Amino acid sequence: MNMQEIRGIAKNFGIKTSRMTKANLIKTIQLSEGNFDCFASAVDGECDQSGCIWREDCLTMSGNSKTQ
User: Fold this and answer.
1) Are 37 and 31 in contact (CB under 8 A)?
2) Choosing a second label site near 2 at 20 to 30 A (CA), which of 17, 22, 43, 56?
C-alpha cells in the first residue's frame, strides 16, 4: 500500500500524518483500530493475522517475503 492510501486511512481516524514514517503511521492506525501495533514485527515470516490489510507490507518490511 502506498503512503497516499495509508494517509487516507489515517485521516479517517483523525491521525495527523506529518513527519511519520510508514511503519509508525501504520502502527498508529493499528492502535486506533483497537489492534496490536505489530506492523513489521513478524519473526521468521510467521504471522497469524492472515486477514490483516497490512500483511504484505508487514512481512516485506520485517525482512521476510513469505506471505503465507
Assistant:
1) yes
2) 43
